[in-house]
Specification:
302 residues; alpha+beta
């Protein structure tokens, strides 16, 4: 049957819809970012809005029938405001509420209680005012510090883009030796001894791509591609060829081909400046009237 289908064995298990990492620039993203994406979006977070049952079976209270336990997480809504704060894994819950016995149920949104508080990072050596929840403050106290809270929890438990961005900055600061504490060597070494163990699960490339949203990762990839493949304007290429031909023809105004003009020595910027000076001499010299006639951008004699 597989040989009779146009796509072979792939159609036997159904057609798979291409995802964001299967086409376009998403397919060119490195494995380091895909690992972070799986940790952030595809990993089951810790239970926050419900209490999971540990047993595998339970007895129904009405029918006394034995049925398997299903710990189904509640669907959460991550609002734009949640990514501008640190909510400790909480989010908005959408559901229905029956407010009167004789009335129909109505839609209802459960929003966590928010407050603005100040947190301190020892690695970054800075105080930050952020919007948090009571659960966030409790977890920070349980982890004995804001840096420990960011580094101990996974991306799926942090949830917010702000928390992931701060975690990336903390990891980069630890990787670079905590430059914020360069003026205090003793405190710098103390912070490195306390937090260095969090660098073991990550490689430098994974730290560089950690905490970016999908759009930010695409923009970063585009910038890297532009830097790797810089486009040289045709006018610079044609100008260099013209100067080279004039030098080979022996025109004195074009200058002599010296060793310093070779591509292997000297910078490209100095070589371009010398080409511009040579063209300026050619246009200003009286023997270059034939060149000024064919140059559409040169000054015409009146």
């Amino acid at each position: 049957m597989a040989h009779a289908t146009p796509q072979g064995v792939k159609l036997l298990n159904g057609w798979k819809r291409p995802g964001r990492f299967d086409k376009g620039l998403g397919a060119q993203l490195p494995e380091a970012y895909r690992k972070f994406w799986r940790e952030w979006k595809l990993t089951t977070p810790a239970a926050v809005h419900y209490i999971p049952k540990e047993q595998q079976w339970e007895r129904d209270e009405v029918t006394h029938a034995i049925k398997p336990v299903q710990n189904i997480p509640l669907p959460l809504i991550d609002t734009p405001e949640s990514h501008r704060g640190i909510w400790g894994g909480e989010a908005v819950i959408k559901g229905f509420q029956k407010r009167q016995q004789t009335k129909r149920r109505v839609p209802h949104f459960w929003v966590p209680n928010l407050r603005r508080s100040v947190v301190h990072s020892h690695v970054l050596d800075s105080y930050m005012s952020v919007v948090v929840t009571e659960r966030t403050l409790e977890q920070i106290h349980e982890c004995h510090g804001f840096d420990h809270y960011l580094l101990k929890n996974r991306a799926c438990d942090l949830r917010s883009a702000l928390a992931l961005k701060l975690k990336r900055e903390v990891l980069q600061a630890l990787q670079n030796g905590v430059p914020a504490l360069a003026d205090e060597p003793e405190r710098q070494q103390e912070v490195l001894r306390e937090y260095r163990r969090y660098l073991e699960p990550y490689t430098p490339e994974e730290i560089d791509w950690y905490g970016h949203t999908y759009l930010e990762a695409i923009r970063k990839l585009q910038n890297q591609l532009r830097e790797a493949e810089k486009v040289v304007p045709h006018k610079l290429e044609f100008r260099g060829k013209l100067i080279e031909q004039l030098r080979q023809a022996g025109i004195s105004e074009a200058g002599k081909l010296e060793k310093s003009d070779a591509p292997a020595a000297g910078s490209s910027a100095e070589h371009k400046d010398s080409d511009i000076e040579a063209l300026t001499k050619l246009e200003s010299s009286p023997s270059s009237s034939w060149l000024s006639k064919i140059n559409p951008f040169g000054k015409k004699e009146t």
